Amino acid sequence: MFVWSMVRPFLPRTLLKYYIGHLMRRHARWLVGFLDPWLTITIGEHDGGGRMGFGVVYDRAKAYLSNQCASRARSLRAELVARGADRFVLSMDHNEEIADEFRGATVWWHSVSAGGAVPQRSYRLVFHERHRELIVESYLPHVSREGRAIMASRRRQKLFMNTVDRHNSSWSYVVFEHPSTFDTLAMDPAKKRAIMDDLDAFRNGRDYYARIGKAWKRGYLLYGPPGTGKSSMIAAMANYLDYDIYNIELTSVTTNIELQRLFVETKAKSIIVVEDIDCSADLTGKRDKNPPGPDTNEDVAARKVTLSGMLNAIDGLWSACGGERIIVFTTNHVEKLDPALIRRGRMDKHIEMSYCCFEAFRFLAKNYHGIEAHPLFDEIKALLHEAEITPADVAEHLMPKCAADDAESCLTSLVKALAEKAKGNGTAKINSMDDFPKDDEIVLDK
Ligand SMILES: Nc1ncnc2c1ncn2[C@@H]1O[C@H](COP(=O)(O)OP(=O)(O)OP(=O)(O)O)[C@@H](O)[C@H]1O
Ligand SMILES: [Mg+2]
Description:
The protein is α/β, with parallel strands linked by helices. The strands form 3 sheets. The chain has a 7-stranded mixed β-sheet, with helices on both faces. A 4-stranded antiparallel β-sheet has the order 1-6-5-4, with helices on one face. Strands 2-3 form a two-stranded antiparallel sheet. The N and C termini lie far apart (about 120 Å). It binds adenosine-5'-triphosphate and magnesium ion (MG).
């Protein structure tokens, strides 16, 4: 530098500007490499498209490092595996550094946190330039693979719910631990088998969906009276597939855009549920209920999720992002829903959850008391033809209420309830005949 500063005033400007400048630029990389042979790769928490990218690489690196750092790092952070769980996951604390070995090469991981309202966390991977190929071609895929496997082994099923935070909807979750499975669900065995086969075909259908050019998603409409097992069926489906559940409470979603964003922010291998769709929003009207136009304050206040918004949310191009999602609507009043909403292709499988039949009763009796036959079964069979009772009600009667309750007393309680219902049905008929005006009354009325 000393020599350069001495010589510089005597060199012609053109030579300085073009020749030496060009030379310096050409060799800058070599010069930097010579002086500093360390390369850095940064993996940010929100890399890969901000909110919607979900920082998949970051999550995998974090999982990978949590295994490495548990024994090596001195400053650690502890997080619960999931809210409500008791197990902890350790990760590197901010500004902590650990070294890792891979096929003879040493790399260093730094955990970096840039301040601000929302801290930007990232990992910085530092390695020697001579290992560039090894790191990019082999080490990073190794980290990703291992990280994914660790995440899978730690995975707990989650139940996401949309919450409103400063006028914005976002997802928050709890660990999902519902005991309902297809083994505890009382329904026609053939129907149950068909649903399980359908779910299997969906889960294994990645290539099939790609081949026929359809987004990898499937819609289920569960309909039937209250207490027939619609919510239990959703839990059973989630447990069977080991998927997460995203439960959308439509009444707290204010705009179509918000709804769309919620759908986009769901991850693959999940069931998106809208319960009681007929009550949650007015989805019975025309598609373009809220045509675009200048908004008044009243318009903005009244804006809600519309039918077209819902259709876009279900079918929108988002469904191409990752795929493998099941959408489930439940309703007590299928006839109230707009046909566009539940047409095949949108709600591919319509499942009626109906009142308890004898088969379903036998299933519940076996589940609750371990009995496959009983002298009261015949009477119950006959009564089930006369009275409608939900599986929820049957289950309630079959459940022992005190230590003295056994199969006999529970079945007797059920028989009593069924007989009363049957009698009620009969009475209702007689009442309606009594109410029917007699001939002379009709004359009088005229
Ligand atoms: N088919 C069934 N098999 C076994 N148990 C059932 C069945 N249906 C209902 N139950 C029992 O009744 C309870 C209520 O059922 P569930 O919440 O699934 O009904 P639902 O159809 O979702 O009702 P709603 O329309 O009111 O939401 C369950 O916790 C379960 O114990
Ligand atoms: Mg329900």
